[in-house]
Write a structure and sequence with these properties.
The chain is of the alpha+beta class and about 130 residues long. It is about 35% helix and about 30% strand. It has a five-stranded antiparallel sheet. Strand 2 and strand 3 form a beta hairpin. It is globular. The two termini are about 20 Å apart.
């Protein structure tokens, strides 16, 4: 899981730019996409909450807006949220925020990509779905 949108193969279920006022719609669209991918019950709720946490993080700390992609890649549902903020501080300075820790706890897999060669941050998470 990496890249800045469009670099990951698989079935695109959602691609949308969003701001603070769009977060309820983002929750709804991610829920629908997760159901379409075959994720149901508590696993769906956990995935949606994790995706919303990283989307909210993009709004609060990444410039006030972001974009989200949801893809089904083989047996994984993947979510990437990209923002245009200043990027993450050096690891030594960074204590992961509550939202990021929660997203990782809910999915078991959270990757953050940020650096001097890119503007903003990409937060990516994934869960396995049942066939």
């Amino acid at each position: 899981m990496s890249g800045r949108g469009g670099g990951v193969p698989g079935e695109l279920l959602l691609r949308r730019e969003f701001g603070r006022s769009d977060l309820p719609l983002v929750r709804h669209l991610v829920t629908e996409g997760a159901i379409l991918a075959g994720l149901s019950g508590p696993a769906n709720g956990a995935f949606v909450q994790a995706a919303l946490e990283i989307a909210t993080n993009a709004v609060l700390h990444g410039g006030g807006h972001g974009s989200i992609e949801l893809r089904l890649v083989e047996d994984e549902l993947r979510c990437e949220v990209m923002d245009g903020g200043p990027g993450l501080p050096e690891r030594s300075e960074m204590a992961a925020g509550h939202g990021l820790r929660l997203a990782e706890a809910l999915t078991g897999r959270l990757e953050l990509h940020s650096g001097p060669d890119q503007r903003g941050t990409v937060a990516a998470l994934a869960v396995r779905v049942r066939s």
